[in-house]
Design goal:
308 residues; five-stranded mixed β-sheet
Length: 308
């Protein structure tokens, strides 16, 4: 029986995800894997805004290199960190069952989004969250925020921010759900592409790893992720495009909504598409064309110019 090495980033949340995959593999195959911590560029540049350091692949590049160099056998990623282009010698044998896709608000004294005072200072590192929430509350003062979940929560405790916006799945996984003041429904804030989903990457030639990982793959999550990533690819978007998207199965049909907003929230387009789960990529591409026809390209071009 071969030893299996699972590569992961070193944050608490990344380690939780790697351990979750380790336990799933153990339960399915009886193989107990070793977890290997690898520091990525995104971890080393904690203070720089994502818009400045270029979001594409900064949280996974070193893990992919370790896979290609065969110092690890599989790598565990948050799907929302995976760029649309990945090395051809690597693939994703498992996309695990998706957790809650929604964003949530953590605030001082449990204040909800609608009840935040005018001009309240809100922390987020995401243009997507900022743009959608400014569309509803243009009076709020959004500030850039980086760092792990603990760091972000401390910014609220210290009073530096009146609230922060985070992925609910991350807080749930870390046992911090009690800190949530409000869960933001998708009609308020559509999630990032892949939010709440974990994917496991391996070498294409490593058929053993693909076999170990096959029981972890969730067909419904995979079709949703294929649709969302096809949309992202067609929109030529990286991590720092104000694009929200959510695909899911409803009564056997793949249904997907997506929106594109200007950074200040003033311009906003939202569209919806649906189709068979087997046509997931086509659903994503169709929705991208609908968004572009509705004016999304002009919004994205202005975002790109502003970020310069």
């Amino acid at each position: 029986m071969r030893a299996l090495r699972i590569g992961t980033r070193g944050s608490l949340l990344a380690r939780w995800q790697a351990d979750y995959v380790r336990q799933q593999i153990l339960a399915a195959t009886g193989i107990d894997a070793e977890i290997v911590i690898i520091k990525t560029a995104g971890d080393k540049l904690q203070m720089a805004p994502l818009t400045q350091i270029g979001g594409k692949g900064i949280f996974i590049k070193e893990l992919e290199e370790a896979l290609l160099e065969e110092t690890i056998d599989v790598a565990v990623h948050s799907v929302k960190d995976i760029p649309t282009d990945t090395p051809s010698r690597l693939h994703f044998p498992a996309v695990c069952k998706r957790a809650d896709v929604r964003d949530c608000l953590v605030s001082a004294n449990g204040v909800t989004f609608a009840n935040l005072r005018q001009g309240a200072r809100i922390g987020t590192g995401s243009l997507r969250r900022q743009a959608q929430l400014l569309h509803l509350r243009p009076d709020l003062d959004f500030r850039d925020l980086r760092g792990n979940v603990d760091t972000r929560l401390r910014k609220v405790e210290s009073g530096e921010y009146e609230a922060v916006v985070l992925a609910k799945a991350g807080l749930d996984r870390l046992g911090l759900s009690q800190r949530i003041a409000e869960t933001l429904e998708p009609d308020v804030c559509l999630p990032a592409v892949g939010q709440g989903a974990i994917a496991v990457q391996a070498r294409v030639k490593d058929t053993d790893a693909a076999g170990f990982l096959a029981p972890l793959d969730d067909a419904e999550t995979r079709s949703s992720i294929i649709a969302e990533r096809a949309l992202l690819s067609a929109m030529q978007g990286g991590c720092q495009v104000p694009l929200g998207a959510w695909a899911r199965l409803e009564r056997g049909e793949l249904v997907m909504e997506a929106c594109v907003c200007s950074v200040d929230g003033a311009q906003y387009v939202k569209e919806r598409a649906s189709g068979a789960p087997e046509q997931a990529a086509q659903v994503g591409e169709t929705l991208a064309q609908q968004l572009l026809a509705a004016g999304a390209m002009e919004i994205l071009q202005s975002v790109s110019r502003n970020l310069g």
